[in-house]
Amino acid sequence: MSPSRKRIVTSRYFMVPAAFAVVTLIWNIYVSLNNGGIVEGRVVNQKGAAVADAAVHLFAVEQTMSTERAVAKTSRNGDFRFNENDSHRIQLRAIGSDGSTSDLRIVRLYFKGQNIELTAPLVLNGN
Amino acid sequence: MSSDKRITSRPVRHHARWPVHAGLLAISVLMLIPFYWVLKTSLTGENIFSYPPSLLPVDPNLYYYVDVWYFIPFARYLLNSVVVSALVIVANVVFNAMAAYALTKRFRGRSLIMTALLSCMMIPFQTTIVPAYLITGKLGLLNSYLGIALPMLSTIVCIFVFKASFDAVPTSLVDAARIDGLSEIQIVSKILIPLSSAAVATNVVLAFIWSWNNFLWPLIIVRDANMQTLPLGLSRFLSLHETTTGALYAFCIMVLLPGLVVFLLAQREFMRGLTAGATKG
Fold it and tell me: Is A31 an 8 Å CB contact of chain B?
């Protein structure tokens, strides 16, 4: 590499924008690999036992209001899964077959459709 | 024989510098508190009127930045600001250099022109908005990038920064270039500007900051929401989300960041450009 070209490449006017470009590229690659829109979690009762056949409602939060986008039923193990979330800010509420409901869980994501698995289960409160 | 008077040197007394540094540090911290508060609130979204205020961020997160990115067309506003600033920077460097080179020459009416330029610096832009709008309209540049950049394509302060830098270049160098057959434009572009990196950096930084933060002129001539720049977007965001402090402050940080980066990159040359010619010899 010629000395002048080396000087350009090692100068801060090149290195800083190049660093930003590299970080942006890496972030976009990560987003494209993880934006399947999958939201997974589990519903349990107050005793911690899995609740089957509970309806989990997913709301997408817009600027000033939230709208319901999808409903999923829990499996025998209390697991639920949404496959087409396209929002970055969602709310989840579980309603058991006996009418008990969970608190509204707010889930914030780093980008639209980010795949996420809830760390804490939705807990159905008693009627 | 006369007695030799021995010159004894007195020991140099070093005054302690730490009180000065401590005072400057305290003043710096005081100046930075508002910026720190904006940054802290953008990470926590806490109520700014809460008492007592918390000094350290509680449960910091980046979600408010995500909200700003998606709730408004931030990428579009960013692109608009970048295009307008790029136009302003290029035009400033070109036009200001040409004007400054002309002012380094001795010609009839030069002092009158310089007096007129200095006088025009005292006229606030707000008083010339109506004629500026009418001229921009006649040129068919309303609601366009060039129209937004038009009033900022040249600034008088930066002309004089270039002039001070060009005055420091020996005239023999310019004469030698002219003898070698260079045109006046080539003298400016190949001799004077390369020797005036500090002035160029000063022009770039000032032009960028003024165009990036410009609110009033884009507010007047922009009609289409897609042509809005970041300051207009911030104002629109504020009108829509008055209570979302976290997102609003995150927007402020995102608007501030590019200007800060540009200044930090070019600060050495910028300071050199501002102080060029301040000391003789």
Answer: no
In this complex, the residue of A13, A16, A88 whose CB is nearest that of residue B66 is A88
Residues 48-87 of A with CB under 8 A from B: 63-64
Tell me the pLDDT tens digit for each residue of B191-219.
Answer: 999 999 889 988 998 999 899 989 999 99
pLDDT in tens, A61-107: 887 788 999 999 999 999 999 999 999 999 999 999 888 999 999 99
Q: Residue A106: beta bridge partners?
A: A91
Burial class of residue B117 in the structure, from the number of CB atoms within 10 Å of its CB (0-12 exposed, 13-18 middle, 19+ buried): middle
Instruction: Report the pLDDT value the prediction gives residue B280, as an integer from 0 to 100.
Output: 44
Q: Count Cβ atoms below 10 Å from residue A104 Cβ, excluding itself.
A: 13
Q: Which residues of B touch A111 (CB under 8 A)?
A: 66
User: Which residue ranges in chain B fall short of pLDDT 50?
Assistant: 1-2, 280-281
Distance CA B135, CA A110 (A): 45
Does A35 reach chain B within 8 Å, measured CB to CB? Answer: no
List chain B residues with CB under 8 Å of A64: 241
Cis peptide before B131 (omega within 30 of 0): no
Chain A contact for B261 (CB, 8 A cutoff): yes
* Residue B62 to residues A61, B41, B69, Cα–Cα distance (Å): 17, 11, 11
Q: Residue B261 and residue A16: Cβ atoms within 8 Å?
A: yes
